[in-house]
What we know:
The structure holds two protein chains of two kinds. By secondary structure, chain A is mainly α. Chain A has helices spanning 24-38, 43-71, 93-116, 125-141, 145-163, 169-200, 205-211, 217-235, 243-247, 253-278, 280-307, 311-331, 335-366, 377-380, 382-396, 404-417, 419-449, 463-485, 488-502, 505-511, and strands spanning 74-77, 88-91.
Amino acid sequence: MGTFVLTDALIQTTTAVADWVLVLPLILALLGAAAALMLRKTANLCFLLAMLVVVAIIACEITLLLRVFESGPLSMTMGKWLPPFGISFVADLFGAGFALAASVVTLVVLVYAEGERGQGVDDNFHAMVLLLLAGVTGSFLTGDLFNLYVWFEVMLIASFGLMVLGGRPLQLDGAVKYGFLNFLATAFFLLALGLLYGLLGTLNMADILRGAPLANPAAIATIAGILLLAFGMKAAAFPLNAWLPASYHTPPAAISALLAGLLTKVGAYALLRSLVVVLPASRDLLEPVLVAIAAATLLIAPLGAIAETNLRRAIGFLVIGGIGSVLAGVAVPSLEGVSGAGLYVFHAMLTMTALYLVAGLIERATGATDTRHMGGLYAASAPLSILFLVLILATAGVPPFLGFWPKLLLLQASLGQGGWSGGLLAGALLINAVLTLIAGSRLWAHVFWRPAPGGATVLPMARGAVWTGFGATAALAALIVAAGLWPNGLFEILAVGAPDMIDPARYVEAVGLAGVAP
Amino acid sequence: MDYVLAALVGCFIAAGIYLLLSRSVIRMLLGLVVFGNGVNLLIFTAGRLTRAAAPIVPAGLNQPDGPVANPLPQALILTAIVIGFAVFSFLLVLAFRAYQTLDADNTDTMRVAEPVDEPNPPLSY
């Protein structure tokens, strides 16, 4: 052993200014949240600040995405320590793409919320939204599992705050269930991290990739099982899904749209990242479990939506069904499977948010939350009914909308897999599409098509509020339709991004750990 | 010593999960605390247990003189304790507010968000 030279463990070069685009979204979101907290007494200024910050974040993330697309994954390590000692941030195409989708969704929700919220309310809404965005973006861009835990907690505390904003009894009830289950999920995640650190002595994802094949496979598979439990709870996969329909319908529509669009998708992404990329050998051992969970989630969630009469609770079940599709991709990690799962996360972020936003508009127009008290809305607002129908079709995966492409990829993957597991998943995916269509069209028929039941009224709304809310939702729906009609760009990104998930050699190289002996 | 602590972690996690299975919100809160502390103790054990010795490399040596514990898991627990405490405090206040507002500290009676009297599917059409 040579003499101990401290500088060998330190980064000697300064990070290129262009590389800062990787952490800039996080810095902007955190600083923006702090500034919004200070400006909370001036609601209008707060809104402008939040919009400005999110637009800047989107600009950074587009730059990041293009850069990663052209020259491979980008990494940056904090605190001057070389990886695996310093905390690494790594952007590959999946992470950067999801981060971009998250900030686009946040922008839409911010505009929508301006119409929904009363004037001059100083309730820290904007600060918490930016904090939530910071947590979500951090989860997508981090290359270190403990850092992922920290971003989970940032996201968690921001979502707690948003959940109880306004403090209606309904929200407190939902927040208790949401809070306990999600805190428990992060505790399980931490438990897995403790075991993993004890086994491998590292929590850097690229370093785990190198160390895990040398460790005891049974021990690593146990850890992967605990991770599956923790992230499955976060993502609301069956049988850990009960918290979602119990809580997501309780806050105001804009907030539930934001939570539905971002939170469960982060759980699904964490599953994809940890099982498919970081611990592939353990994923192979867990495959029968994953197939069973995916099929059960796909089949049971839309049945819940069919049985439900509360509009936003029914949509909550559709969100869970989407998680089943992502899990199907995790269970069949071929090129098509991983591409399908990634594209589905992207699609679900946009579509589920838009569905909740439309539900909010419907609730404002009818003054009810239960479909039994709704009806005849078609006569009052035909555009709203078209919007809802488009989103339902996109959720079910009917062409030409965005939801069709990931479903197609996942079906191809399951059929390509063959055997009982492939057949089960393919059947579950198809039945899920049909059941989702039934659930969605039932909701549509009840809310829009049938004559208004006794006592159901269509409330007049303030014009400005309608236009910001409707405009924001329509813009998001237009994005979903456009991405479905011209999916070539997305497929080009997948063609580069999905191979990096299956064989993360470029990822490890970007972190700077390739070739170094473990 | 490691075995003793490993057994203790097992007891903490088991007790935490048992308490979390309760319907009473206060017991669930206690369960979360016990569970969280079990996890912290686990990370602590993962970092090697030695008598008090600072993990500092003396000048001129390649490694610390004598056995020391890994300081990194201790830094991890510190982070986890702070975060866990903050989230727990929030849940404590939330449980109290829920008790005041909903008059319920039992999850069976906390049914505002999920009403019990909803009709079964065919009737709800």
